[in-house]
Amino acid sequence: MSSSRIMTEGSEAKCIISFTLPLLAGNLLQQTYNFVDTMIVGKYLGDDSLAAVGATGSITYLFYTLCIGLSIGAGVLISQYFGAGRPDKVRAAVVNSAVITLIFAIAATIPSVLFARQILTFLGVKANLLGRAATYMQIACAGTICVAAYNWINSVMRALGDSKTPLIFLIVSTILNVILDLLFVISFKMGVGGAAFATVLAQGISAASCIIYCFKTNADIRPKEGELKIDPKLIQKCVTTGIPIAAQNGLISLSMVALQSVTNRFDENIMTAYTATMRIEQLVHQPYFSMSAAVTAFTGQNIGAGKQERAVKGYRASMKIGAVFAAVMFILFAFFGRNVIGIFVNGSRTKEIGALALIITGSCYIPLGAIHITRGFLNGAGDTGYSLVNGITEVVCRILFSLVLTRIPFISWRGIWITTAITWAITGAVSILRYKSGKWKLKAVK
After folding, report:
1. Fewest CB atoms within 10 A around its CB: which of 72, 165, 294, 441?
2. Is the pTM of this model over 0.85?
3. Element of type H or E holding 50
4. How far apart are CA 247 and CA 11, in angstroms?
5. H-assigned helices in 264-307
6. Cα distances (angstroms) measured from residue 318 to each of 13, 106, 163, 281, 294
7. Rounded mean pLDDT of 134-144?
8. Vertex 86, ends 85 and 90: CA angle to 5°?
């Protein structure tokens, strides 16, 4: 029985919220991969090992994100075809986007595994951390195809209005990841490599099982006889729609790599605090990521169905929800930031640094929400070209402000997190200006 759902009727806010909640649950579960790694590595292997793992985070995500961006682009096509009532085009887009995702996953894996040590050396990772960081990065990047496959099937199902099916498989995978983490790191004493291998294995199982189940049970994506073929024109559409998103994600990742490089110049207390706050901020991002994905699918289906005003109403409702969440999180970190940081680290100095960092970045959670929600709307409308502008803005801001602010004596290491807050504020403003320009009205995928 098909689990697809049309989102072109009913209350906009209710539709988006009901679609967002399973996505949020799934994203939070997926983040437990990172949290489990962080907690087990930090508590059982020590702060040095945690710093080594943290030093790989931005560069590893860079390789992941190119594949993820292409998957999102394919989802835009699929959602608009689905909303327009073109099942043949839906199935063709599924087949051809799978091919592109596989090719890019392999292309991203090879350099990241072969040149991990050289890349980390270039980024300034300290000699005493380099060996462990390289091991973690090589194993994690070897699993890029698992990450790409899971995000691809997620994107396909979201485009069809189904945010629940992938969640079921992710729950099982998350439990497995926890068990494997404990087994490899504590029982088998495999060090940081064990934590990376546990995550890759769990994600691979989740991706494979979800893909098999979805194709067996959902006729909307299962190719009919003669449809399992490559369509050059559709490949081109998948690439031209997805490349700007992939480029945006890649540029944002590069900006994070640059910020990580600046962070690596400071002592290990700063590096460890940065790793911990990055993990916490990943959690904060999840409702925004989820709502952005929901808005993309909602907008895509409604634009495909010719219901532009309904798409706009959904965007406005999402912006209000995002602002409320931002205010709640800032209050939480303002009063309990030290306790939250203490979940991941032991040192008193590290907790002090991390607590202040959460207040600094928390002050700009509203523009952070605006970035994600507006990006989701523009992508769903087919205005994926703006994603490149968005990525360039973040690169310029993170590199410029981090290099300047961290060299001002009375700001110093605080400039790492001030840079993040300023980047969100500027990028959020640029995103809203793009929406208000109305250029997205001319960008619907035909």
Report:
1. 441
2. no
3. helix 47-54
4. 34
5. 268-304
6. 7, 36, 17, 20, 10
7. 91
8. 120
Q: What angle do CA 137, 142, 144 make, to 5 degrees?
A: 100
d(CA 273, CA 373): 28
Closest by alpha carbon to 281, among 151, 374, 417?
417
What six digits make up the tokens of 152?
Answer: 């691809």
Distance CA 415, CA 367 (A): 19
Res. 80 pLDDT band, cuts 50 70 90: confident
For 433, the token pair is: 């200006």
Distance CA 114, CA 394 (A): 28
The answer to whether the beta carbons of residues 69 and 242 sit under 8 Å apart is yes
- The whole-angstrom separation of Cα 196 and Cα 94 is 30
- Residue-level pLDDT at 37: 67
Q: What is the pLDDT of residue 10?
A: 86
> Which DSSP category does 112 fall into?
H
For 138-177, give the DSSP string.
Answer: HHHHHTHHHHHHHHHHHHHHHHTT--SHHHHHHHHHHHHH
Tens of pLDDT, residue by residue over 308-348, are: 999 999 999 999 999 999 999 999 998 988 888 888 777 78
Distance between CA 31 and CA 28 in Å, rounded? Answer: 5
Average pLDDT over residues 149-173: 85
* Domain definitions of the chain by residue range: 12-442
* pLDDT, position 434: 93
Cβ-based neighbour number of residue 315 at 10 Å: 22
Residue 25's identity, in one-letter code, is A
Structure confidence by residue, pLDDT tens digits, 373-395: 999 999 888 888 888 888 899 88
pLDDT tens digits for range 264-298: 888 878 888 888 888 888 888 889 988 998 999 89
The pLDDT, as a whole number, for residue 330 is 93
Write b or e for each residue in 221-232: b if 16 or more Cβ atoms lie within 10 A of its Cβ, otherwise e.
Answer: beeeeeeeeebe
In this structure, how many other beta carbons lie within 10 angstroms of the beta carbon of residue 115? Answer: 15
Q: Compute the distance between CA of residue 148 and CA of residue 365 in angstroms, rounded to an integer.
A: 28
Q: Which among 145, 438, 160 is positioned nearest to 315, based on CA atoms?
A: 438
